[in-house]
Amino acid sequence: MKIVKIDHIGIAVSSIDEKKKFWLDAMGLNMEGTETIEAQKVTTAFLPVGESEVELLESTSDDGPVAKYIEKKGEGIQHVAFQVENIEEALAELKEKGIQLIDQTPRHGAGGAKIAFLHPKATGGVLVELCER
Ligand code: ZN
């Protein structure tokens, strides 16, 4: 498995609009619009930072995974995403090594990426996302 870089850091927020003040006005980052992924009940906004990005995640519904995360743990860092060269290969390798996966096969993420999550139980409490662009 070849990891290319840390692709992005996913941050759960109650309102992208509200948190924009900090990330854009105070930190000086740019936002290239938002994208809603209905299947995951989430609206995302990507803010490029050099070779990586900050991903703001706002739930579109009270029962979405991001809403549940905020309910349990509050707003903040929700996942760390690593870009891999070949996501199918990476998942097969991790599975072979006995790592518990949330997604057995990749699903569609924002920006046309293929993504898959590893189970936090297998990673020491970190929700790890793999993505291939
Ligand atoms: Zn992500």
Summarize the structure.
The protein has 133 residues and is α+β, with helices and mostly antiparallel strands. The protein has helices at residues 16-26, 65-73, 87-96; strands spanning 3-12, 34-37, 42-49, 52-59, 76-84, 107-108, 114-118, 128-132. The protein has a single domain, classed as 2,3-Dihydroxybiphenyl 1,2-Dioxygenase, domain 1.
Q: Helices, strands, pairings?
A:
Blueprint: E1 3-12, H1 16-26, E2 34-37, E3 42-49, E4 52-59, H2 65-73, E5 76-84, H3 87-96, E6 107-108, E7 114-118, E8 128-132
Parallel strand pairs: 1-4, 5-8
Antiparallel strand pairs: 1-5, 2-3, 3-4, 6-7, 7-8
The chain binds zinc ion.
The protein's oligomeric status is single chain
- What best-fitting shape do the alpha-carbon axes yield? globular
Let me know the number of strands.
8
| Total domain modules | 1
Mean pLDDT: 96
Order of helices and strands: EHEEEHEHEEE
CATH topology: 2,3-Dihydroxybiphenyl 1,2-Dioxygenase, domain 1
Uncertain segments are none
**Pairing-aware structural class of the strands and helices?**
alpha+beta
What level of helicity do the residues show? 10-25%
Q: Give the C-level CATH assignment.
A: Alpha Beta
Number of continuous helical runs: 3
Hetero ligands: zinc ion
Radius of gyration: 15 Å
Q: How can the largest sheet be summarized?
A: 8 strands, mixed
Terminal-residue CA separation: 15 Å
Please give the order of strands in the largest beta sheet: 2-3-4-1-5-8-7-6
CATH architecture: Roll
